[in-house]
Structure formats: structure tokens, C-alpha cells
Write a structure and sequence with these properties.
This protein is α+β, with helices and mostly antiparallel strands. It has 7 helices and 12 strands.
Amino acid sequence: MTFRPVRALGLLLGLLFLALALGAAALGVIQLGRVGFSAWIAVWIALPLLGLPLALVVAYRLHGVLTARYQLDRDGLLLRWGLSIERVPLADVLEVRPPTPDEGPLRPGRGLWWPGCLIGRRAIGGLGEVEFFATAGPEGMLLVRLPDRWLAISPSDRDGFRQAYVDAVRMGSLERIAGQHLRPDFLFNRVWADRWAQALVLAGLTASLLLLAFLAFQASTLPTQVAFGFDPYGRPESLVPPTRLLLLPMIAGFCWLTDLVIGLWLYRRDDQRPLAYGLWGIAVLVAGLLWGASLQILAASG
């Protein structure tokens, strides 16, 4: 049988946080094109640099809530939450019960989670290591005891899940399934251990950050208006404030971040890894082209 958690609160708050993160990033980009060079420029640069990665993490958490399900049959328990998969043979599920009042606090440790999206780990006195895949607090939670830890889950029909577990135990397992413990952290470790992947990802990030630092240093020495475009004959046009140049490293950083995420998705499969390398290489190429564009604009405005 398949059980799903109650998702309304987690999705509502997640969408709100996503909108705030994207809004902050958009505000920073807009203000970079409007304000002059001042102390505030650091704030407008920081907003997209922090807002876009935060939005990606929140979006991944939302994906987890949307895809969350707990499947129980006579062979075992299958838990899916985003890219996380836990497959446990029925014989290794030692106990399924609701929490007791003296157990707590039943919430994850440090990390990005919110009410309606309880995801993470925490060592809890009396229980030990608890891994959370839940959308409800203790009042809607079930604790699943495994040989090495506990799982905290929140099927919308708690009584139905417990009864399905009892029925599965009574029927007995037809065959012992292979256990599976898959977390996205393993993917990041695999990418970081790959020298080609590490070099391409770091090269794209470094090129974008160096371009940002270079233009921020140059902005104060430029005239009040600089060329930000050229006509078909190569003559400068579209005079703008020099801070508009900071949009170029922002574009490079956005390209790097987008290619990083898509590349990580492709990297999971061996036959698609060349595509991942290609995407990370494109981010380096884009940064290089924007470096060239920046130097040409500075030369035309000097």
C-alpha cells in the first residue's frame, strides 16, 4: 500500500520562501542597473548571490514534499523523498509506533527545514539517531525503528499505515529484498572526487567571481556614463551608469549555477556524464566571453 503525507502547509510555506528568495535576487539585479556606485552596491550584489542558491535549495525541498510517499508491503518498506530513497526489508523494520510525550524534541537538527517540511537528522535522547522524512509534528508522526536508527515519517493515515504493517508481518515476506540507502549527498561526494568535474565547476565559479571583483574595482574609476552596447559598425551606444557592468558577472554566475544543477542531474547516470561535463564547460566559456565583453566595454569607455 502507498501512503502520502499531508503536504498543504509544507508547500504553502515553501512557495512563500521561494518567492521571497527569488524576489530578493530580482531586486538586487534591478537595483544594480539603477543606483550609482556606493556602499549599497555590496547589498545589491549580495542579494542575488545569496537569493538564487537559497531559491534552488528551497525548490529542492519543495520537490521532496511533492514526491514524498511511503510504500509498505509484505516484503518491506520503500520511502521516497525527492532524490532520497530508503528501501528496508520487512525483517529490518523492528517497530512502528507513534511518539510518546517524553520523547523530544522531535524535529531535525540544523539545516533548511520548516513546519510542513521536516527533513534532516538529529540525535534524540532515549532514541538515538533519528532521520526525519515528515510533514507533521509529533501529533501526526510515526517512528519506524530500524537496526541502526529510527525513521520519523508522517503518513496522512497513521492508523492505516500501522495496520498495514501488522498485516504485512502476519502474512510474512515472500523474499528478502535488497536494502537501499540513497541520499543526494553521495552525489556531491562523487562529483567532488571526479577531477574533471571538480576542475570545470571551480573554473566556472572562479571566473565569475574574479569578473565581479574586477568590475567592482573598476567601476569607481569610470566616467558617469559608459557604453553598454555597440551598433553594427562597432561604435559604442546605449550609455548607462558604470554599475550596469556588474550585470555581466551576475549573468555569468547565473549561467554557472544553472549548468551546475542540470549537470548534477545528468551526472547521476554514467552514460550522461559527458553531457554534464559539456554543461560545466559551457559555464566556463560563457564566463570567458563575458570577460571579453567587459574588457571591450572598458576600452571603449576609457
